[in-house]
Amino acid sequence: MIDENLLLDFGAKKISFSKGDQLFREGESALNFYQVVSGEIKMNNYNEDGKEFIQGIFAMGQSFGEPPLLANVKYPANAEAISDAEVLQLSKENFLKLLTSNPAVHLKITETLAKRLFYKAIMVSEISSQEPEHRILRILDYLKKYVHKVEGKFAYRVDLTRQQLADLTGLRVETVIRATKSLEKKGEVQIKKRKLYR
Fold it and tell me: From the record, what ranges are coiled-coil (predicted)?
């Protein structure tokens, strides 16, 4: 999203994380801007029973955690590396300087946040009222179009486990398995060598 060299010019540090490492935890103060260089990062919460709910998954070139940073509030979720990952970290002070001196970047960040807000509004509606198959297609289409920017029928290989799909949609794993099999019969997805394609 933001040019890597521009972030480095403003003092960003490139940090490596191993799969499972926490970048920040729910309730901590938001102190930095983060952008993924490689790998994937998820933002998640756990309910009282320990069930995970994935708020979002962020891949190369995507940033995360900006709303609490800009709103001066604590993080509402955890950030965790799904795979080995490299991330650019820029202090809040320098991030604000970057935005002030680069209006085009500021506009791009605003656009990105607006798209995420739109996605959240759709997902809240989906989770509260829609059938499992519909929820799964919505999240797959969002990841295909906006996260991985893939076009074409069955061109997007879903690199999420059934458990992660369940955590993203508020469903049980068994429900995800049944729904994806049903979606395959309807020609909405393909399952090849245990991998899901949309």
Answer: none
Please classify residue 104 by burial: count the beta carbons closer than 10 Å to its beta carbon, then call 0-12 exposed, 13-18 middle and 19+ buried: exposed
Q: pLDDT of 61-91, one tens digit each?
A: 999 999 999 999 999 999 999 999 999 999 9
Q: pLDDT (tens digit, 9 = 90+) per residue, 33-57?
A: 999 999 999 999 988 888 888 888 8
Residues 40 and 86 in one domain: yes
Residue pointed to by tokens 């076009």: 151
Does residue 111 fall inside a structural domain? no
123 assigned to some structural domain = no
Residues 81 and 158 in one domain: no
- Domain total of the chain: 2
Residue 76: C-alpha distances to residues 24, 63, 137, 145 (Å): 10, 16, 26, 26
